[in-house]
Amino acid sequence: MSAVDLVVIAVIVLLSRILIERLMPLFYESFGLHFGDFLFQTLSNYPLTIGAVLADFMIVLLLVKIFPYGGGRAIVRSLVEVGVIIVMAFAVSVVVRAGHCGSADDGVKFFGRMFVFTYVSNLLFNAVVILITDLVFYYRWTNRKAVAVEAEKQAKANYQYQLLKSETNPHFLFNCLNVLQYLIHEDVDRASDYAGKLAGVYRYFLKLEKHTLVALEEELQFVSQYCDLLRERFGGSFVTEIDIPESCHSTKIIPCALQMMVENAVKHNVVNSSNELKITVRVEGERIVVRNNLNPKKASPDSSTGTGLQNISRQYEILFNKRMESERTETEFVVRIPLIS
Known about the structure:
- The chain is about 65% helix and about 10% strand.
- By secondary structure, it is of the alpha+beta class.
- A hairpin with a 3-residue loop joins strand 6 and strand 7 (about 330-340).
């Protein structure tokens, strides 16, 4: 709970105490009625009481949607609540006094002192109901926020674990070193270029520890290096088509999201001279779409369970309330990744 929320609640409690301790005795001296007596009369009118409580509940629910907790508008929201309490108390008081006219209130003006007493009593009643309802909503919000924070921490931990696995993936590193060893004997210039790209890939991995988002342009440069490493290994059987307009380069994406899609495509499909793997990357609307054809490998005990894909999708849901979509047809696998403006 913020300092502003505490101050607002303290002021409401203080004003309520002043009204009860100072004003109610004056009404007792004038009318011989205690606040408790009026409260009992009010609660005895079941339809009016239920209607007032439901109206207070709906008002708080509406204010929560318009001025959500944690939005930095606590003072404005409190002022609106005070205004609503004043209007609600007036409306209820009019109904209550109208019900008494022609009987006990004969000879007393409709908006006389009895109306003032009724109004002040309803003011306190509605203020208490709205305050309690508001506190219940706030308590539920803080609980949901705490759960969301824990879920976010867990998702981040899982995602960082997947990144760490990618960084230290022994199969990937072993294959890269084999290719590098071959190139050193065949073509020193290509070997040097390959070693530079391999270093660039791992440099990118190392700088992601505290990054939630990266620029799409930066991710594309990284994926390009990663694909070049794979192309040296698979030759012309590994084909990529990346067509992203420059207008989208400044948008953001979760780091390694594209790389993981490429990695999954290679991991789950046969890539050789007889089976070409083609990966296309395009922008469609507010999403970046990754497609690859299917030449599925036979299932193996160490095959992936899709945890990496699930972790990235979970990151989008928790951090940005967006969903990452995947679709598998008979001929291709498609992933649609949200872009963050």
